[in-house]
Amino acid sequence: MKRHLLSSFILAMLFLGSCEDDPGSQNPIDGIETGLKGEINSKSLDLKSNSILPTFFQDEGDETGALEVSAQIPNNEKLTFFLDEVKSGTVTISQVFPAVMGYSSDGLRLVAQNSSEAENKRTAVGLSSFVKYLNSTNTFFAISGSLEMKIEGANVTVIWDLIFKDKEGNNFTSSGTFTVADYKNNTKPKSQINNPTSTLSIESITPDYASAGTEMSIKGTGFSALKSENKLMLNDLAVEAISATATEIKISIPESGEHGKFSLTVLGATAESNMFFYEPVITSINKESAKVGEELMVTGLHFDIDKTLMEVKTGDKPMEIIAASLTSLTVKIPEGAKTGKINVARIGKASVEGPELQIVEKQPTQGLPVDQIFELVSGNLSFEEVLSNVNEYGAIWNIQIDPDKNIMYAVTASALLSIDLSTNAVTKLADQESAIYKNDLNMYNFLTLPMALYPKGDVLYGLKNPTFMISEVKNGFKFNVSSKSPEMLGDHKINNGADPLGMFVGTNNRIYLPEFISPGPGYALVSYNAEFTDRKILHEDAGNFTFLLGMGGDKYRYVSKRTINDAKYIEGNGDDISDFISWKDQLKPIEFDTYTRLIGMDYRNSNFYVLAATAKDGANVGATSYPKLHYALGIQTGGSGNFQKVGEFSIKQTFEYGGTTYYVRSQESAYKSMVVDKNGDVYVLIQTPVHPNTGEELAPGAGGIYKIRF
């Protein structure tokens, strides 16, 4: 009995030992021996069982399984066959992996959702039959062909006929037969199938900010080493690879591209990179020299439509970017800027250098010295030229101020100008070709220029002069200061008929102005919506000598009558208005005599400012005469109580006409001639004298805009 048990134990141990032998060294079964004969890329193959490793994958309960056969070829090469289902028949090979990968590289795959990277690395889910050939430098996957299987008991024979591509895209073939004896001898669960695939991904682009023509390295996984199988795009632009491996593609950044993401498609799968930004290219600037406060246009390539993402400097001084596109940047020359090279950069990136810009730091005066124009009578007043009428755009007839931006708007017969009050630099916004000027008779003078103006944010509201406006109906406009483009609005011609022409736009987006309505009530106070329609008449007898003073929010004051003795106002809050309220008592401290006229008024920082004038010799103060005027500047602090006189002056500049000497002056006008900035400094417009009948300029170049400090 003991002898029998011992014999059984020895036989059992011998059996187990045989199972642990190299599975590639199987003994012949039914006279069939494992082996492989064939050719690949014109090289003959004749392998015995010790060079062949078969592995059968089957889970408990499955009727069949998958078979992987790895054949070790001389020169350290390997040919691997994977059959997703072992059964007699023919398997057609179609391309599911890149044709060429790097040495020992995985092919392309898509990560299954809700699966970890490790789970996707070794899985049988959706894995089709394939054949791969590994040489010393690359892995090649068969792109087409067939595998014919024959099952005979425990043995399998496969006849193959396959086509591969090399790295240059040329075809090469392989054909032959292999037999595996007892193919189930080395059985493992399907979870151990080695999936030769990897996720298509772009992990990095280097550099991610560069100029066209720079070599870029795109790194990731699942690429094809065959360049033609990598379909690379930058936005909608196809990009050709210089070289390719399974993990890196090199390109030359294309000349005609734009900022964007690279997308890579390999065999239907697509991956996307992070953003790539081109280094800016500066091609030109629109002027070689500029004054502080003026605008400059930088033209080039690869800027950005979002101006906050760009930076422009002259030397090391940043400039304010007013407008931006992919091909141009409009900037304002800052105070303190020095002559130097223009530099443009994407925020946080290296800058590129452009042409040199010559900076004119101080706006030179153009008119007479102020001591030849003004004569101080009382108070601590100082005078400074802002823009003389000796300028390239002609005499100034109308002014308005944006105190928040410290910008003044000035209107001539030929141009709408903006003036940076920190530097007095001038920028032309519109000319006679603009819709806010253009008229049917092409006649332009001080009677045909835009009338009332009111700035609100980046928009300048206004009224086009209806004189000689024959074929048009809309004369309200919203002028975009950044783009310098107008939008004409309204449903009828609006005659802003009270002097000086005024306008106020509230936070309720209603537009308030004096209007001459005929037929109808005549001079009225009205409101419109932001499109210059939906007119509401708020007061039918509002007077024709007025100042319309915006006070913030929806509040305004409508002042009527120009002599101090008759001065009165309407208090407005949106469309709700008061009755007329007398203002003459509060204005008495600045009155010279009963003929004292109100030349200008403004409201700033809760204070009302007034400029009054009289002719001490009793001469006519009206717009058709030119006596020497005596001016008083006053302020009502906090908007209540009496006005206080802060100074007096005269204008002593004269001109000759018809053998008679006259005085230049700031006079009653149809247009606004006084404004106040955020610091409480007063700006006065001195008009060029004109002939009362013909409109001829009697002293061209005389007058302009002057700042008065007190």
From TrEMBL:
Residues 201-270, 280-348 form the IPT/TIG domain. This is IPT/TIG domain-containing protein.
